[in-house]
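Reading a protein record of the kind used here takes only a little practice. The record below shows the convention in full.

——
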Amino acid sequence: MSEIQPLQVKSGNTNVTLSLKDDNFSIESSTSTNVIIHALIGVKKLCLKSFEFVPVDMELAASWTKSVKNAAYKNAKPSKHLKIFINPFSGTCKASKVFDSEVKPIFDAAGCTYDITITEKINHAREIMQTIDLKPFDVIVGISGDGIIHEIINGLLERENINDATIPIGVIPAGSGNALNICLQGEAVYKSLQHSALTIIKGVPMKIDMCSITQGDKRYFSFMSQTFGVIADCDLGTENLRWMGSMRFIFGALKAIFEGRRYSCELAMKIAESNKEIIRDTYRKEYNSNSQSVPMSRDNRYGTVNDPIPDDWTIITDDVSTILGGKVPWIGKGTIPFPCALPNDGLIDLLVARRDKLSSRIKSINFMTEMELGNHIKMKEIDYYKVEAFRLTPKNSTDGYISIDGEKVDFAPFQVEALPQLINILSIDGKYQYVNI
């Protein structure tokens, strides 16, 4: 960033010097007579403050204002027009209230305009995204949990023109899980509405892979995770405990472990890498690298769940504690099942915890504890793969839970395949938070 000379202004009868240092002016605007600065001040807790000054030199003030604005926004477009979806039923049902009190003032200060839809039913956002004219908008914003992002993405990818899916998506956390926002912001500030709003205003698009899911004659897309076993049970089986917040997931996991539940399945997978040391080393090397752009395609290379399993796939038939596939490091606070997940490596991270290896409650609890920091990948009892695709078929049961992006789907066989770089998510610096493994 080139140096910006300080500006002399007056605050009342006092002479004041304004200067930009380390991009501390987060949001900036001006009028024809005065200099008005809107700034988010703080570190973990950001607070919107506004300052108004009378410039000593009007011509210099106009030039200074332009330079500061260019520096503050860098490559981001200022004054974005946003399409916003608010789910009034997510989390503690306060999404509309927090938007009005916490988020709207920041968007207004940044000169953003917006069109708001309050969703009224499941898949309301998905239905709108299938047909809405996207040309007026710069960003699609979900104010809810991960469910509304799942709807937005599926609506985009069901449109006739696949290039429509390139419009960036922004996240404001208002749900009980908010896993995607943890991946974007980190656990320290993922609940901060101010940090999330600032990411939408000044963030950069990050290309992310999608998971194509086929189940029966249905097809949909997943951006986060596919779970079977203990993790699915503690997610979907604790809906009545939403009042506990993220603690409900811990409670559900412990309950499943102490009840000794059995989960039988057949897992077939197209393995790209099974050596955990190689997977960890690759993650460290590729985290800061720029992946090459690839053509966008919604086509499945490996067919659907109804096709025969390819001959070169590996098949496991076993009792398991849990099986998780995914594309993001975190699936909840203190839960990092995929510490080596990269946003656009074209592969799915697949975790398999076999029941015979987690033969005691102590080992099962240790597995859940180690997953808080992603250290379970170091456990010899846990298998961790990078795969191009996999198929899971439940066995010995006709009823149970399968979770896709935290949402319940049919308890039936499903197949997952990675589709590279189909969606853009606004992030701080074009990557997920780093997992130190």
Summary: Residues 81-202 form a domain with the Rossmann fold fold (CATH 3.40.50.10330).
